[in-house]
């Protein structure tokens, strides 16, 4: 298969829009973002005007502080930062620049599950020989795998979403239950709470396919195989026994009324979280920041939240999983890729920026220098009433996480998984039936785009 056929396919795919796979981004900020390849639309002030400038699009809420920290400390290059919108808004602008052949920034903030799509369009620069060796020990193998496509590194990791089970201590105390350690216990505990007149235990949300994909990995599934070195080939295994077991399990919980089926990240869902409609929230380390930003934990539900490790299929062989995470990638339109790589690897890597990020619940940092620091490990998280959640839950999960395989057709896969979870939730398909339909749809799409499915 010719490479250009794949590039055409993923260009079409990228224009379908965003299904973001991490915590909500910034406020959209300076959204014009025009002229990304010229240092003329800087949101920040460049203090050292005699140095070369690298342009960057990024939407972390504290990005202006991060860029100021970098520029003040750096005597080789300066960053011109623009907030071109968060998530899908930024990707749409980046896609337009890719198609036009100009207008992209030198460095682009990209969620891990988007990297393969842009890499397939030759829109990103491989970083293996541009500073990766100097910083590789600062991150885990799982963090690097998430920003890799085949053997190539295409992003500098910044934040991630190691998963845990957030739960309401008041509900658990009221019904005399403890945090389940296995999915078998999860179901039994949910049943006990329901039988006693309590709320549902969680929500199996159709609009969060990335979280469900993480649950598949936790059961040992390998949904995709993809390496651009094997030109045009892609492995798709979405109806494996491991995936069917996961979807059948959640289908069973839905059928028994043990979990809800509400979409997450909606006002209605947040109202339910505050009101005690759910005993748990299976989510990532960024969730406390998101929940507090949405008003959770400020009223009647203040002081009732805690977190525990994710339930496992086999408690003796736990598998850590991750939901979300972003990196800085170098655009193929960068005029000086080596200088741009210095920015990608160096920005949001200094202690002051990392500390501001995690202390203000903006990021869960993946830099091991932070993960191993006593200040971070022993931090008593206010949202969790002083629980040392990093030490107890999120750092062990981050350290044990082995990464995922992302592909250029990832967004189509997410859209199809969303449809299949909706079928499960409305009772029109079992988990196994949904997995078979998912496999059929994604294989057909991949073949239509010119991939050889193996």
From TrEMBL:
Signal peptide residues on this chain, from the entry's feature table: 1-20
Pfam family for this entry, one: SBP_bac_1
Entry coiled-coil feature ranges: none
PROSITE patterns: PROKAR_LIPOPROTEIN
The UniProt record lists the keyword Zinc: no
Swiss-Prot/TrEMBL keywords: Signal
Protein name: Extracellular solute-binding protein
Organism: Microbacterium salsuginis
């Amino acid at each position: 298969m010719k490479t250009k056929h794949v590039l055409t396919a993923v260009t079409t795919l990228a224009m379908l829009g965003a299904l973001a796979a991490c915590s909500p981004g910034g406020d959209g900020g300076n959204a014009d973002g025009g002229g990304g390849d010229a240092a003329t639309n800087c949101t920040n002030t460049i203090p050292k005007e005699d140095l070369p400038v690298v342009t960057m699009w990024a939407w972390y809420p504290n990005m202006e502080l991060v860029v100021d920290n970098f520029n003040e400390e750096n005597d080789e290059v300066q960053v011109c930062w623009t907030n071109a919108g968060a998530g899908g808004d930024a990707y749409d602008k980046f896609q337009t620049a890719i198609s036009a052949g100009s207008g992209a920034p030198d460095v682009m903030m990209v969620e891990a599950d988007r990297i393969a799509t842009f890499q397939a369009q030759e829109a990103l620069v491989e970083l293996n020989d541009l500073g990766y060796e100097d910083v590789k020990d600062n991150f885990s193998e799982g963090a690097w795998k998430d920003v890799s496509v085949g053997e190539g590194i295409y992003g500098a990791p910044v934040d991630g979403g190691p998963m845990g089970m957030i739960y309401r201590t008041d509900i658990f105390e009221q019904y005399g239950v403890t945090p389940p350690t296995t999915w078998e216990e999860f179901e039994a505990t949910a049943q006990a709470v329901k039988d006693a007149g309590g709320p549902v235990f969680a929500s199996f949300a159709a609009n969060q396919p990335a979280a469900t994909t993480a649950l598949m990995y936790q059961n040992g599934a390998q949904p995709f195989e993809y390496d651009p070195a094997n030109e045009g080939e892609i492995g798709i295994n979405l109806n494996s026994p491991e995936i069917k077991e996961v979807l059948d399990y959640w289908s069973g919980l839905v059928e028994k009324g043990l979990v809800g089926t509400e979409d997450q990240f909606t006002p209605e869902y947040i109202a339910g979280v505050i009101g005690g409609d759910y005993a748990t929230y299976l989510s990532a380390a960024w969730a406390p920041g998101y929940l507090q930003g949405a008003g959770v934990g400020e009223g009647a539900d203040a002081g009732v939240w805690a977190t525990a490790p994710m339930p496992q299929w086999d408690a003796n062989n736990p598998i850590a999983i991750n939901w979300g995470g972003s990196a800085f990638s170098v655009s193929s339109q960068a005029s000086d890729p080596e200088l741009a790589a210095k920015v990608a690897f160096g920005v949001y890597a200094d202690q002051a920026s990392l500390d501001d990020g995690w202390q203000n619940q903006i990021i869960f940092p993946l830099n091991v220098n932070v993960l191993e620091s006593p200040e971070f490990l022993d931090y008593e998280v206010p949202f969790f009433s002083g629980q040392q959640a990093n030490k107890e839950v999120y750092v062990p999960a981050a350290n044990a996480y082995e990464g995922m395989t992302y592909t250029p057709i990832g967004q189509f896969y997410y859209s199809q998984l969303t449809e299949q979870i909706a079928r499960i939730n409305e009772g029109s398909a079992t988990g196994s039936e949904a997995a078979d339909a998912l496999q059929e749809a994604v294989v057909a799409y991949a073949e239509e785009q010119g991939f050889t499915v193996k």
